[in-house]
Structure formats: C-alpha cells, structure tokens
Amino acid sequence: MLRLGLRLTLRSGREAFVRLAVTTAAVAVGVALLLGVLAEFHAFQAQSSQPCWACTSGNPVPSTLPASGELWNNSVDFYQGQTLTRLNVAALGADAPVLPGISRLPAAGQYYASPALAALLRTVPADELGDRFPGTMIGTIGQAGLTGPGQLAVYIGYSPTALNATGGTTWVTSIATAPAAEVFTPFFRYAFGIGVLAVIFPMLVLISTATRLAASRREERFAALRLVGGTPADIRMIAAVEAAVSAFFGAILGVVIWLLVQPLVAGGALIGTRYFSSTVTPAAWEYAAIVAGVPAIALVAALISLRRVQISPLGVSRRATPKRPTLWRLTALALGVALYLYGLSVTSHQSIGAATYPGLLLTMVGLVIAGPWFTWASARLFGSVSTSDIVAAVKAAGGPALDKRKIEVRNPIKTVGAHQVDVRLHPEISATLSLEVSAA
Amino acid sequence: MSTPVVAGGILIEARDVRKSFGQTPALRGASVAVGRGEILAIMGPSGSGKSTLLHCLAGIFAPDGGEVWLDGSRMDTLDEAARTKLRRTAFGFVFQFGQLVPELTAADNVAMPLLLNRVRRRAAYQTAETWLEKLGIGDKGGRRTGELSGGEAQRVAIARALALGPKLIFADEPTGSLDSLTGEKVMDLLVGLAREQGTTVIIVTHDARVAAYADRVVMVRDGLVSLDLGPESSAAAKHAAKAAN
Questions:
Q1: Tens digits of per-residue pLDDT, B29-54?
Q2: A8/B104 touch (CB, cutoff 8 Å), yes or no
Q3: Which residues of A touch B80 (CB under 8 A)?
Q4: What is the ipTM of this complex?
Q5: CB contact under 8 A, B103 and A7
Q6: Helix or strand or coil: residue B100?
Q7: Is the pTM of this model over 0.80?
C-alpha cells in the first residue's frame, strides 16, 4: 500500500504535483520556523547557563595586602548608549585565579578587550574611547567571559598598590562560576514552548486539509481500488502516504532553508546580536526528531482526518457524518481557556501558574475540535442559497437543466420560506421562479 | 417469480431483493438465480434497476430487504468488511469506464487485486503479464491506463477481473463506451476467456448484441425481474431486445 501511495503521490499529474509542492513548501516554512525557535531556545539556554564572573562577591581588602588572590574594581561605563563592563584587576600572587575568556591575567599596563570593544577601539578616535583604558591591548576576551558577541567588556591590569588606592576595590580569592539569577528565565521557556505549538498546529491543520482535499480529488481512483477489494483502511493508508511524503520533503527542505538562514540569524541580521553564533543551533537529535517526527505526525493527522471520509466502490465519496456539530465540540476549548486563565491568575513574578501550559495546549487542540462547530455556526449566520443550489433543486424536482448564470437572485436568500428569483431565458424573455427554502 | 432450475447448481441468487435510494425504490423484490459457469445478461430500460441488482449481487450495496445467497451462504447479512473481502477474493469487475487507476500502468492495474490479496509482488506481476498477453495487449503492460484507448482499457479491466481466478465476473455495460467493432472484440475476449476458465459472468447491458453472448437473459422492469428467457442465447437476446424496446 505504501508503494502504491507513493506512486499515486508522485505520478498523479500536474494538480497533484502542485498540491504536493504547496504542502511541501508550507511544511518547509513551518519546519524552518520550528528550527529557528529551537535554535533561539538553545542560544537562550546557553546564555542563561553562562557562568557569571561579574556576580563574584569580593571581600574588603585587608590592611596588609595578602599574597594570594587578586584585587578587583568592577565598574560600568558607557559608550554611545551601550553599557561597557570594566574590570580593573591586579594579581596578588602567582596563583591568582584567571578570569574566564583569557589565559592569564593582564599585568599592569595591559588589558584585554571583548571583540566588540576591540573593533570599536580600532575605528573610534582614541580621545573618545581608547584613552579611557591605560596600557596596551594584549588580546581579546573569549566567549567564556562574555554574555554575547556584542558585549563591550574590558579587563585592565593594574599594580596592586595603585588599584588598592582606588575606592570600591575588593579582594577576590575565587571567581563565581554559577549562572546569573535570571528572573525571567521560566517565562522565556514558556514563550518558546508556545512558539513551538504555534508553528506545529497550523502545520497539522494544513496537512489534514490537504489530505482530505487530495482524497476527494482522487475519489475515482480510490473507488476503483475499493471495487477490486481494497479496504477503507487500505485507502486511508494510500491517501495518508501523500501527507507523509509532503511532510518528509517539507521537513528536509525546511532543514535546508534553516541551514541557509542560520548564519544570518546567528550573525544577528535577523534577531540582533544577543547570542554567540555557535549557540544559535538546534541540537542534532532535534534535527533527527523533526525529519522523522513531522512525517509521522502528518501521517497520523491524515489518518485521523480521513477517518470520516468514506469512499464506496462506485466512487461516491462523502463525509460519513453530515450531522450538525454539537456544542460538545466546544468543551475542550472552554476547558483549555479556563485552565489557561486559572494558570494566569496564579502566575506571580516568581513563577508561572502550572495550569498555563496544559491550558494553552488544550486550547489549541480545542480550537481544532471546535472548528466544525464554528464553521457550521458561521455558515448559518452568513450563508445563503446559491444559484447552483437552485439549479440542483430544479433538476431534482424533475425540471430542466438551467444555466446558473441565467438565474438572477434579487437579494441573497438567507431565510427559510418563500422566495422568488428571475430566470433569463432570452434577453427579452425572463421567467419568475418561486422557491420554498426549508431548513435541512 | 419462481427461481428457474439452473444446470450445474446455483452459484449466486437474489431472492425478493429490495433497495431504495431515499424515497425512490430501485428494486421492489427482484429475484434471480445464476448457475455455475453460466453467462447471464440482465437487460432492461434505463432506470429499471438492472445496475442496482448487479450491485446488490456484487455486495457493493447491501439490500434493504430480501436475501442474496452465494454458494449456499447468505451474503446480504455480511458486514462491509466481509463484502469487501468477497470482492477481493471471489469477484471480478468490468464496468463501463473500466474503473482503472489512470496513473498506474496496465500491469499495475491488473496486479492490483493480487497485491491486495497479499500475493507476492513478483508473482502478481508475472500473472498480470500472462493475462495481458492472453488479451492481446502484452506490449502495453508498461503503459499508463490513462494513455490507452477505450478498447485497450477494457481489455486491461478484463485481465484484472480474470487474473485472480474469480468465481464470478460482474460486467456493467462493458462495451457501453466502445464502438461496435471494438465492443464485439471485447465481448469475444471476455466471454471466451470466462468460458475457458469456467467463470460465471453476469452482464448488465441494454445492447442486444452484447446480450446475445449470454446463455440466458433476464429482463428487469420497474425494479422487478419480469422476464427470464431460456438458454437459447440468440433467441433470448432477440426477445429481450424486443421487450426492451
């Protein structure tokens, strides 16, 4: 069945090819966005777990300078609105702890600058920036010492005596390695989770719709298979293969698109320069999970969406349940919204209410379940009898086949009861047709 | 009407079968019995219910009332899955427009029922090639059926119907979309091969020339089998043609 599904998917002419291409492209965009969200999440995680050397708490400098550790004078400076982290440091002994991102502490008259600051120093006149830092730049600070590629930071070496004479100097014996306490970290994590859901759900809805459309377009083909003994399950599997194939191609294409735009994203062209480019990437297992998982989820979504499409051996395809959608369809949505609102009500500055996340998930699922009810309700509100309906009704009543373009409906028919329409039989001859619209 | 005695025993039988579509009755108590190896033509005017009778016999429709017996077992009470299995294992179909999958090749279409029956791929395609050869279109196996002529497509449908070695072939207007010469060739092949295999064939047709191939002709009128003409095929067809007009 899989092989047959594949052949029907790949060889069914222009229309099927266009449908395949459009679905593939849509899935590709979705997958690229998904990878982007995951990459951002990784970069965010990497930044959040970066050791915070600036969080080191020093001790008051003893009256006699100790022979171990180092002196720190940490300050914040500004250049054209950008914050510049400045650490004046003086080693007190050979075992003085080395700051992250450099291999040895700067001696008096030397300094290390972050790459972004080093670039500025090369271009900005010395009297505007360079003169603030005494001595010679002997290197740049590596990634380990910075929160992002755009950070302006400088480690300046002093002699212990000179630095001790400056107010606010502290004695440091060990440098903090714990990440900075981020108040908003859990909020960002939730935001990323929401981002992933917001990409996946529309993708699944699109795949389900395209599969149903493809199944109805292939009605005759599937009827032929039903005639020679193909079971509804066989047909569903064949029809669902198209969804899986387009999802697979879409996933691969999505990965390619992502790999093409990744340098731009990582380079800051799209999102600013908050993260190191090497961290703006999904994990290898996430790539694998997406390439395998998106087609698998598409296959399941297609099988579910085809559950109610019946194809008889004579080619009559119909939705098996034309029943009016009941209000029960709104249950999951209502529960989801209630859960989400409850979660919000217990959300504090410290943490997000535990109910928020499942509430959001249930709301998304609920929207999919409630879809048919909303469609039915809006059709009832805004729908009207079309000229095609009139042509079909006349034919069903044993009347002649009319051209729907010749029928003139004076006002859109939106209510049950008696209505009249004109049928233009000839430029100069028209007949009036009386209709009785009844509720189905 | 009474069920005629059929030589060789009855293979399939409809007893007082009723079927309506909405408010419109299509069959009002049709009865017919078909013997093993027999070739039966069902004739009747448009809208008489002849195709509906065929579809009820083939398990495509479940009748609203009455009984359908196949090989001594009730068939009308079977569920959709069991009827699907019967279509897959015991029946072959040749319909007016072939009911082939146009994107697939002739060989694919013929192999289809075998593949659905989990016959191994290679064996299925070998059987398909053999049957295409027998039908004189061995060179068309690799062509998509959408690219074949009407006569060639019907031959593919006949090959598909016979490939599985079915008990029974249902043919609904098998020559309806063909010119008379091609139609004659198709009927020669269908009936010739069915007789060779000892396969029972039920043909729905409004064409007396097609009915002339049958051993027996029944007439359907207003949802009832109104006339059952004996085994003198040509005479039967002639009468049927007259009755149809």
A1: 999 999 998 999 999 988 889 989 99
A2: yes
A3: 232
A4: 0.84
A5: yes
A6: coil
A7: no
